[in-house]
Amino acid sequence: MGIADDAVEIRAQGWRTLAALHGHIEGALERELTTGHGLSVVEFTVLDALSRQDGWHMRMSQLARAAALSNSATTRLVNRLEDRGLITRILCADDRRGIYTELTPTGSALLDQARPTHDRVLEEALDSAAEVPELSPLVESLHRLPSPTPA
Cα(95)–Cα(48) distance, rounded to whole angstroms? Predict the structure, then answer.
């Protein structure tokens, strides 16, 4: 194997490690959020993203990026969350083609109830992943990332 092949294998191994850590965390979050709050991880992600916006609304394309979903999957997800009364859609005043999504008071209340579960499970999943030799260096690097500065 040449140097270029080694570099490719190192990147591939890094990607596999990242995917394993993501799967470990997402599985733990999915179980707890679904059981405790009736929310999937992606539903929690959408509610959380909306709660962090000034005015609590986002364009559908922004929401798709925040949730790492295609536009069609985002539309289906927004339909489900809207049917549950957790978010609402609003036409953009200056661009009638634009549609915003906004968190409802019901969605905000559910998010407030689910956030401590999310944070606890995330911490527990990272702690357990730190015990896995293959995942430990990645977990350690996550702990070294700077905290976001408040806006």
Answer: 25
Q: At what angle do helices 105-129 and 3-37 cross, to 10 degrees?
A: 130
Outline where 38-104 has alpha helix (H): 41-51, 60-67, 71-83
pLDDT tens-place string over residues 14-72: 889 999 999 999 999 999 999 999 999 999 999 999 998 876 678 888 889 988 999 89
Rounded Cα gap, residues 74 and 67, in angstroms: 8
Buried b (16+ CB within 10 A) or exposed e, 104-140: beebbebbeebeebbeebeeebbeebbeeeebeebbe
Burial of residue 43, with CB atoms counted within 10 A of its CB: 0-12 exposed, 13-18 middle, 19 or more buried: buried
Taking alpha carbons only, the member of 20, 12, 67, 22 closest to residue 44 is: 67
